[in-house]
Amino acid sequence: MSSCDVWVVEVPYDSRDNFTGRFSVEEYSETYDLLTKYNVRILKDGDPHSSVVYIRNFYGIDVEVFAEVYGDRLTIPRQVIDGYVIQGTGRIDYGDVVLSYSVEDRLDNSGLVDFCNTVYFRR
User: Fold this and answer.
1) What is d(CA 80, CA 85) in angstroms, rounded to the nearest whole number?
2) Where are the domains of the chain?
3) pLDDT digits (tens, 9 = 90+) for 86-103
4) Are 67 and 91 in contact (CB under 8 A)?
5) Can you tell me the mean pLDDT for 17-21?
6) Neighbouring residues of 63: CB distance < 8 A, sequence distance ≥ 6
7) Cβ burial, residue 7 (10 Å; 0-12/13-18/19+)
8) CA distance linking residue 84 with residue 107, whole number of Å
9) Which residue has the higher pLDDT, 9 or 65?
10) How many Å apart are CA 93 and CA 97, to the nearest integer?
11) What dotted CATH number matches 15-122?
């Protein structure tokens, strides 16, 4: 007689997987009353113990921001990139990513802060 051993390997759940991929974006600027469309890509940090994801082409200006994922929530901590001050929050909503954030262009002397509500639709 022979016997079989069954091995069950559990892969740890990574909530960042809900946020990664390629997305078509519809961004509404409350400040300028303007709807803008563009594409982004969200990638996980290489460290499997990290909560960080990177959003490429954020705000449609070809910059990359980092965000931290906690369950179905995302936080974009305050960061300054290429003269832009960026911060915000987001969540998963039926597979899409819904974000609210502010962008201040420090190179523009107007002092305006752009407040945006955005939906990232999975492509």
Assistant:
1) 4
2) 15-122
3) 999 999 999 999 999 999
4) no
5) 96
6) 57, 81, 82, 84
7) exposed
8) 8
9) 65
10) 6
11) 2.40.128.120
Please write the tens of the pLDDT for every residue from 3-14.
Answer: 678 877 777 789
DSSP state letter for 15: G
The amino acid sitting at 112 is L
CA Rg value for the chain: 18
Handedness of CA 34, 40, 42, 43 (dihedral sign): negative
Residue position matching structure tokens 């305006």: 112
Q: What residues does 99 pair with on adjacent strands? A: 90, 118
The structure tokens listed for 13 are 């759940």
Overall average pLDDT of the 10-28 stretch: 92
The DSSP 8-state label assigned to residue 72 in this structure reads T
The pLDDT assigned to 9 comes to 72
CA distance 43 to 17: 9
